[in-house]
Amino acid sequence: MTELSKSGAVVGEPVAASPSPTAFLEVRDLKVHFPTDDGLVKSVDGLSFKLEKGKTLGIVGESGSGKSVTSLGIMGLHTAGQYGKRKAQISGEIWLDGTELLSADPDHVRKLRGREMAMIFQDPLSALHPYFTIGHQIVEAYRIHHKVDKKTAKRRAVEMLDRVGIPQPDKRVDNYPHEFSGGMRQRAMIAMSLVNNPELLIADEPTTALDVTVQAQILDLIRDLQKEFGSAVIVITHDLGVVAELADDILVMYGGRCIERGPAEKVFYEPRHPYTWGLLGSMPRLDRDQQERLIPVKGSPPSLINIPSGCAFNPRCTYADLPKDNVTRTVRPELTEVGSQHWAACHMTQEQRERIWTEEIAPKL
Amino acid sequence: MLAYLIRRLFAAAVMLAVIIMVVFCIFFLVPKWAGVDVATSFVGKQADPAAVEAVRQKLGLGDPIYQQVWAFFKGIFAGRTYAGGGDVTHCAAPCFGYSFRSEQAVWPVLTDRFPVTLGLALGAAVLWLVFGVAAGVLSALKRGSLWDRGAMVVALAGVSLPIYFTGLLSLAVFAFGLKWIDAQYVPLDESFTGWFGGMILPWITLAFLYAAMYARITRANMLEILGEDYIRTARAKGLGEPVVIGKHAMRSTMTPILTMLGMDLGALIGGAILTETTFSLPGLGQAVLNGIKNQDLPIILGVTLITSLAVLIANLVVDVLYAVIDPRVRLS
Amino acid sequence: MTTQRTSGRRKQALAAAVAVAALLTTAACGGGDDTKDGGSKNGAAGFDAANNKVAQASLVKKGGTLRFGGAQDADSWDTTRGYYGFMWDFARYYSRQLVTNKTEPGKAGAEITPDLATGVAKVTDGGKTYTYTLRDGVTWEDGQAITSKDVKYGIERVWAQDVLSGGPVYLKDVLDPKGEYKGPYKDTSKDKLGLKSIDTPDDKTIVFHIPKANSDFEEMLALVSASPVRQDKDTKSKYGLHPFSSGPYKFDSYSPGKDLTLVRNPSWKASSDPIRKAYPDKITVKFFSNANDLDQRLINNDLDLDINQTGMSPQGRTTALKQHKANLDNPVSGYVRYAAFPQSVAPFDNVECRKAVIYGADHVSLQTARGGPVAGGDIGTNMLPPSVAGAEGQQYDPYGISGENKTGNAAKAKEALKACGKPNGFSTTIAVRNNKPVEVATAQSLQASLKKIGITAQIDQYDGSQTTGIIGSPANVKKKGYGIIIMGWGPDFPSVQGFGLPLWDSKYILDSGNSNYSLIKDKAIDGLFDDYVTTLDAAGKTKISSEINHKVMEGAYYLPFTFEKFINWRGNNLANVYTTDGYSGTYDFVNLGLKSAK
Hints:
The structure holds three protein chains of three kinds. By secondary structure, chain B is mostly helical. Chain B is about 75% helix and about 5% strand.
């Protein structure tokens, strides 16, 4: 038990945070709660991580795990224009390049949006305005942050479209979103996001709405662009395959919290949380045969209003009864270091998890 | 685009022909089935059957229906001559019929009254568009607030109160009670201020009804649009709220509103019967009411056609406009 | 087809009307000051001040604009084609006749006085020849003299019913009962004056030869349909848009259903016209589609009087009675409101069943439905309106309608039902115009009181604009089973012939456009009408009139509701105002003047 009490500090997670963090992006104990008629929805409930420039963080989880809410929280989009709705309650700290965003002037955050930090959305068809041309939308994104005339901005838009691999960009720039194919739209969306050379790029399910073949092209594009621009990238997905290709670090979310994080190879080859196992089991892999391949995580994601006590994953966990004293159902596990820069939140002992992984799970994958 | 336009125009022309035929059947066949002789309503209390028969001949009521329809169509393009009992009446093209009740061609009556109705409809449209849309947007942005609830209650009242109530009320209070305005119609070419003074109450009354509808629909549209992904994108780009609402959200919100406006204007131009009656405005609506009161079928027929024409044209304009506004429609 | 229900929308409308009425009442407060004095220089003359007497004759000033308003335009301003009472009244501004009604209040207004003619007719040949001489100095609006030929041509136009439909055809029926003349438009003679029964020996003389004497012939010549029309100015069917004036005013502009303006006719000479005073310089008429709006403008003094003269609408009336009583007159309209019983529909072929309905009806309730004693009129006890010679008013009450059993006499009704062979009552249909709310209310009242004596009546509201085609067709009435028809009738001219001939004479039963709804075929009545037209002395005519009325009542063909009265607005600025029996109790328009010429 000493380990547990120690873990809080060891994890490097928030303890009397220093006002000026060293990382480019640092999220500390982020909580995003939405009051509703049915109760408080705790979409994100204490999330912390760091990200350096030039690095890619993959945030993985089922829908409702809080990954998109996190990204919108960083972008400050929970507080902008929530007319009439009950405001989201956000606490914690988000440091971007030495500025704390949650306490900053909303207008300052607005100016950072699009320039310092940009976002690629899941469905480029609905995320692009149907009544404005692609060019118009990119030009608009550029001119809001740069005092240039329309011509210059349009040249820039064409340049960006060219850069993301759209053929005949000088013609396509005047097309409307519905005149583009799905992949092209996503390229245009990426062009729009990168038009201001943002230092932080958040890609929220950037390939979910696309064909498999196009998915790979888009992922390649994001990787190439990251190398070129040296930005920090957060890729949000429910698909571990996507992050396997892109991410340096992986953060697995469940019920609004991080349950495992670490370098990508660690999380992939030595996962230390039963939920991560489940995700790996349900990941489609071309080198496996159909029957064996998909082992879905049984049960459904937890209600964010009534998060199960103890370990949020316990109702779906095959191994919930392994730790003694019913501790999985009464005490919430904290993140503990399970390897170098590798953390997981599980009541099972390291040995138990190592054994189950190597003996029961890995052979099936 | 041109082919599309031509196709639509052709469809509109066919539609109009069908409408004329249907209207004809209603006006000339239905009374026949009901056993009512239209000609008798044109003669006096003790007219002899010969006089009734003569009137019937002059009006061409005895002719087969297809001949009547054909004569009517021909009249529109070539003019028409009514002859009977030694009396010859020429109705110049475009002849939309001739009212034997008031002894005048229908077309001049329509053109005489059209500006009144047009002025009423356009003036009211400006009012309801400005106030209705503004109230709807504000309500959407301040959803659940006191303003929102208040505005929606007023809108509900506006939608459900009949024009003859709000109209008479406004007349009683502002024209006769407080005597702020002299609510009498004055033609525009006589005096602008007189015209404006006479129109202000009808405008407000009519606009109140429509503003209420538009406010409710704008609010609902706006709320829906605000939840769209592309609005989030606009914010993610770093656009300020005025641009996000005023440009991105409004553009989408206004599209269905414009469609509605086109249809409403079309219908109103056909005659805002209740408003024109309440305020004694000499527009098309009043003409049709007089027509009904006096059994003046040609006038009713004429106004019905103009109404149909107005709705058809409005439809056409809305379709074309839609193609301009919404690039997705253009290709199909 | 069945009993009417009050729909939600009607309730809404009712609530709206009540609310507006309440508002109007309060809004009009402060206007009531002029009710106190009995007739100041600028104020109103007092309640009923112009009813059968002249109000404020001495205050009249020459000049100014007389402002009429109306909810309904004339059927036609063509003197041959107009049939609306107010049109006849108004037409005297721009048309003259050989003889016309006296410009005097009350009963005297119904008497005949020479107009274009130098005197009333010289009647010879046993009442079959009428001779008139035209005055000197009578002219058209272009200054040309009015000749006897113009008068003949004007009268001939009545024959052209196919072109000039709509007006009364008495002259045609009396002058050419066989229908030999085809009218001036089909006249082959060069001067188009082919009607044989009128002679014009010279420009000043006109002689009428009627095949059969008719004691009301001069009344017929006093109708506006006997006005002169000049042949070169006859625009046939379009004449009503701009009649060529022979009177003191001429058409300046006219837009049907919108407005009408008359200005002085400079060619008219007061010396040639003993009748018309021609006080105002200009006469305007504005038509409104909203009757409440019209009433408000009257009360507001934006207008001087209602051209339609059919009484104020309920809202305006209520306000006016409370706030401006001194501006109101309450004349008898000359109309009788009644129910007729078509004898073609069983069991109304049986006189006892007809009597049962008359006895069973609640006459007070019917009167209330018509608007009560002030706005509706006195309970009608017989069919001859009070303004017609020979009328006895409530003194003749054969069924005890206005007596102690005025709320219905169930005992007598049951008795009559038994005599009719329907002791347990029967079922029938009441036909009523759907565009007259008051008549619908009357039908509902009748329905309720008949139920008490076992008669079940359905109410059929038919299209009021199609009256002539629906209830004017006996075949249709029989087919639809209309046992009771709600209607009203006013005299064309104040005599039993001008009122009752089309209603009661069997010759007037027509296949279409019928007005003898009860289908009365009574030789005695027909005979009395024949006697009437040949009786030339006033006393004899009066006696026959009463007799006809009695016969009609004895036959129980009608249930009279009211001798109609109405509430009429008289503007503050009006002078020389009076009601006349010549035009059914309405104001005599032609000599109205203004107190100040503004």
